[in-house]
TrEMBL record:
Pfam families: Phage_integrase. This is Tyr recombinase domain-containing protein. One of its GO terms (biological process) is DNA integration. Residues 1-128 form the Tyr recombinase domain. Gene3D superfamilies: Intergrase catalytic core. One of its GO terms (molecular function) is DNA binding. Keywords: DNA recombination. The keyword GTP-binding does not apply. InterPro entries: DNA_brk_join_enz, Integrase-like_cat_sf, Integrase_catalytic. It comes from Jiangella aurantiaca. Coiled coil: none annotated. Residues 144-165 are annotated as: Disordered.
Length: 165
């Protein structure tokens, strides 16, 4: 998907958020742009400058950095939030193709290349899978050894679990 096309795509909303957006609300203030009259720019964006024109990326990034510092949050670039959300989606088990579509990437292969950071949960899950596999193989070998003609170790015949008994 060319970059210009994905800038116009509409993000998916979760059911709860979609319901909130769909609820009719009484207007507390005049509709956007009324105060600007003919000077209002209908950019079709939700977040805009006061006159309705699209925000420049630098403006968003600079203000995000300033607000993050004021809130004493760890330093992170605004764009890194995309990577963080992609990592969390993958950690939650969302399919790579779906994450790719959410991010507006042309292919899931590109998403996989870009999302090089792996959440700790994913690494822990991988370690748990390996750990679950290895003990079964060891136990199976031990059972095979006991049923074979190989004599048992002397400590096991006396019921000792270690050589310290």
């Amino acid at each position: 998907m060319p970059r210009s096309d994905h800038l116009r795509r509409r993000p998916a909303l979760w059911r709860d958020e979609a319901a909130l957006v769909a609820q009719p609300r009484p207007l507390v203030r005049p509709p956007r742009g009324v105060a600007w009259g003919a000077g209002w720019v209908d950019s079709g964006r939700v977040f805009t400058y006061e006159d309705g024109s699209a925000l420049k990326p630098g403006y968003v990034s600079d203000n995000f950095e300033r607000l993050s510092a004021a809130a004493q949050l760890p330093p992170v670039r605004f764009h890194d939030l995309r990577h963080g959300s992609a990592t969390m989606l993958l950690a939650a088990g969302v399919d790579m193709k779906v994450v790719s579509e959410i991010l507006g990437h042309a292919s899931s292969a590109f998403t996989a290349d870009v999302c090089t950071s792996v959440a700790e949960e994913l690494a822990e899950q991988a370690a748990a899978v390996i750990a679950a596999f290895i003990p079964r193989r060891v136990k199976a070998r031990a059972a095979d050894a006991r049923s074979s003609n190989v004599p048992a170790h002397p400590s096991s015949e006396r019921g000792l679990s270690s050589g310290l008994g």
